[in-house]
Records
---
Amino acid sequence: MSEPIATVRPEPVEGQQSDSVPHLSFDKLRTNGNQIIRDGAIVRDEWTLIAATHAEPLPAGRVIVPLARWLAERDALTARITEQNQPLGVWLDGHEDPAKLADAIHRFAVIAVNFPKFADGRGYSIATLLRSRYGFKGELRAIGDVLRDQLFYMKRVGFNAFAVRADKDIHDAVKALKDFSEVYQGSVNQPLPLFKRKRVPEIA
Amino acid sequence: MYKYDSYDQTIVDERVAQFRGQTERFLAGQLSEDEFRPLRLQNGLYIQKHAPMLRVAIPYGLLSSKQVRKLAHIARKYDRGYGHFTTRQNIQFNWPTLESVPEILAELATVEMHAIQTSGNCIRNVTSDQFAGIAHDELIDPRPYAELIRQWSTFHPEFAYLPRKFKIAVNGAVEDRAGTLFHDIGVHAVRTASGEVAFNILVGGGLGRTPILGHVVREELPRQHLFTYLDAILRVYNRYGRRDNMYKARIKILVKELGLEKFRAEVEAEWAHLKDGPSTLTQDEIDRVAAHFVDPAYEKLSAVSAEYEKRLLDNKAFARWVSRNVFGHKQPGYAAVTLSLKKTGIAPGDATDAQLDAVADLADRYSYGEIRASHEQNLILADVKLSDLFAVWEEAKRIGFATPNIGLLTDIIACPGGDFCSLANAKSIPIADAIQQRFDDLDYIFDIGDIAINISGCMNACGHHHVGHIGILGVDKHGAEFYQVTIGGSQGLDAALGKVIGPSFAQDEMADVVEKLIKTYVDLRHEDEHFLDTAKRVGIEPFKARVYDKKAGHSAAEVANV
């Protein structure tokens, strides 16, 4: 089996955050046993994440390519899906526009959204749009600085897979999916707000 | 007021459990400082100079007597016997230990209170008019809408990690007592040509480092679209607001950089997808929440009370208190009383556990068990019978909350400043105290009349100095605490930002400076002009001339003395 290809993240400069490199390192990924949370269970991850800086030909097997690569090599990558019968994934960074995937959204088995740091909340809107506006039905995966205390919100905006940061205990993190048993607003995993589900008058 | 149902209670209880776990993981070293910070901030917990500071939410300023007693209990058991009411209708405790915070939150949850989203880069506790529901000039009671926004914003999954903090205020009256022009979003009720009440949505206002008045981004939004429109604004902000520089991360900067028209176009394009979607409000839900804010069982009273009129004639001190601390009421025979938390010698907004307990008793006896916190850092008993006003005054005097100074010079608005806050450049409380000490003649204060002095210890402007008629801002000058002075700021519909009068002053000069500003006003005022009117008419020059002219002489004299 091929090794995952991911860039070792450079030491962050104080107050500056890399926008383009997923917050993943090869070593740390391995220490987490290549596991992710998918649909509430801890499973082995069979996908290889391709870094934005990776310019070589793609390895065989299941790969998640950066948006730029998808846009640049769209025909070849489409052929990989349709002719070689290879499922394909694509990943977006916080500043990237999910609308760029709209016309091909059903081609992807996985769409991953990078959280350059956990307090950067752009990915929540990106996920919401991918699910509710562009109708993505496949695996929506949070990657990067993915920590336990954000998982509940991520699940609500439509993520069903979580590549928990490699130095964190994934068995601990999965517990957060059950932090709350009730919510007020509508969101992707529960479009109706509380007042349209449970607080409606009896006659409804 | 709003009473939790089982869903509200479950959500708050589960939050307590979640935060207990987060605190335990932090103390066990499983969460780093950086990882814990946003989590604790979204529970109102700051690490301050002396100890953690816990900011407890008072949604739109409304409290029951039971809740106030719980706050008194928390002050006694976990703090040093007092709390501080803030300029955003919340209360802060300055001395709890980190380990005790989960327990405090558990205690708060038993009285339907919490510290959710009182800090951090999320949608903050919603604020409103402290006279909501009783004011003469009200188009609509804003409290149901403030409560609906509280629920919509509580743990909103898409908007928990915004570029920066986000504050929403709701106003339902003709006069704007909620400061909607100075919020990230202001929701302002208006009556449409067809007689419906709708909302003007203002966006991009704020104080802080870059003070800006908000702009109307949408006129006359029908009420059922409130949530979908807020979602559209927040989504545009969450996606495009700056995250590279925290000083340019507020929505006001995005609005400024895009321009209002472009910003509006983005919001409207987003809203086109959300409008009439699942989050559209229903009349049932509006009615369900509004039913919590019906009038109490007022007695049918005459608009005048002979007993009260006689007291006014007989007792000058009482009459004086009434003239400042009592606000008219829509219900004949009732009035709203403001308890002043601005007694000289006490930090503005501070209340002890004993005072809080006494206020709860007053509310139970005279005001249907409810208390309100104002953004001017005072407390209000909203439904007092005219015939009870004298008794309330006597009780308020006993607990030190009857200073007859609402809206007067000594009703100073101030943040906790450098005595407590680790963000502050300079202290606020000693400045407030020095000014109050200087103006110790009540007749003179009454003669000066309406004036708002606002003090902030730093650019974050928690003391709202930009909108003070006299605004005082703590600045760092080569490592020393100095104060910059503005005049002419104001709140309300014709809100304005104050203008800086010149170079800053040392702490011990501040009482003199304020005195000179006041003397300038007294010399130049026309009859019936308040400080703000005179300042607007004559501009800053005469004030500046007097302050700096004398200042030069004063400093020279000081030098000579040394």
---
Amino acid sequence: MPQPDRRRFLTSAVLGGSAVAGATALGSLAPEAAFAAAPKIKLDPGALDPNFAEGRITGISGSLLKASGSDRTLHRIHITDGTSIWKLHPTTFDQIKVGDGFYARGVRLPDGSLAADAIWVNIVNLDASIAAIETARLHLDHNGKRVIGHVVGGRTAAVYGSAPAVADLTRLQVGRHVKVIGAWRPDTNEVDIATVYSGA
Amino acid sequence: MVEWPASVQPLFVGATLLWSGGVKCAGASARRAAQRSALRSLVGEARAPIAHRLVGAAELALAAALLLPPVYAGEAVAAAVLATGFLAYLAYARVVAPDSSCGCMSARPMPVTWRGFARAALILAAALLGTRAGPWWDAATGHPWAAGTTLLGEAAALVALSPEADRRWLYPLRRLRVRLRHPLADRSFDMPLESSLQQLLGSTAYRQVSGLLRSGLRETWDEEDVRVLCYTAEYEGRLATAVFAVPLRHYRPEEIRVALVDESAESTLLVLDGA
């Protein structure tokens, strides 16, 4: 189905009035039920999680990513239509480039490759303090190193305290401690900021 | 008479050593500063705090000798030797332990940068100049204005080269500039995706199907006053798309609806509202 038709179909499925079931159609909302339904992870302590991979992408062929992990493990990762791809925002397979870092979660196939349910490309989580604020970027001090955080129009959001996320960044202050979720620009000290969390 | 600039150098070097020695000996977290510094790899983890304190004591003793009478030529020479030692230490830290803190003039973690080298070089130059000096109090009374200006200039250079002092003068200036005209102002007031996600994660509809979700957020688009968010889900043994409709401009998680759709068969499996 072409993309506009597909989106129209999906939108009408969720907004169309037909056959709405009640909130409890899938069972109880009690926390006990949620715990009972949660998948059990059977892993020996210290064992590697077979359904997880991380590293940097060394090659792309078709929908297969070849990567090498930070422990030099070689990974092959299948990306399917059902795989969610994050690279600063939810995006598409063609945005993944050789040299990108990633974390992926999915199901390990018998041949040793990973069928990814979700992949986060270049995602970083930084604890830093704001050293300077310039047009469209923050200078961050992260463990004594300088990191440039780029503000991306229409993407970058700020969370002040426990308030809902907003696009307004004017309450950020020089000297304040912040936490930044962003997308690293490979082999640089620069990130594009997805969300910046500030105390107040 | 060009002797007075040399004569005030012991005052500058002495005051600087008083600052750095005081921080090393009496600073509240001097111990932590020592453990973060390159002394750790130079003399070992256990001996780093003692070595740090010894350097501080030497600095204080030298500061006292420089600032108080009588004047010996050896004082300035000792200061020059110490400054050379600082330069060597910084070079060592840069090469051997690049992740270590300077541990120089505050307990705050400070990486070794060009500013540290420039500062040590400034102290070395002052100490070398001071070897040709008479008592600083004669120079200070003989040329009070010139001596004062020189000292003030040197102190300003020292502070400018000290990352430790940035929070006292540089950050307030930057804060003032940001307050006058925030460089990140004039941005649109679009609803960020993160805000919709926060609303979604707190909703009944999400809690109902979260156990079925397999992927992260796959795609999203806006449809008038709702934002549509799609995930991959597994429902009754087959792959489906979980389509959430989140109010775009209001916080009403109870209005969030979700549909489980089989895209290959173009059929809707289930629609839930949050009520």
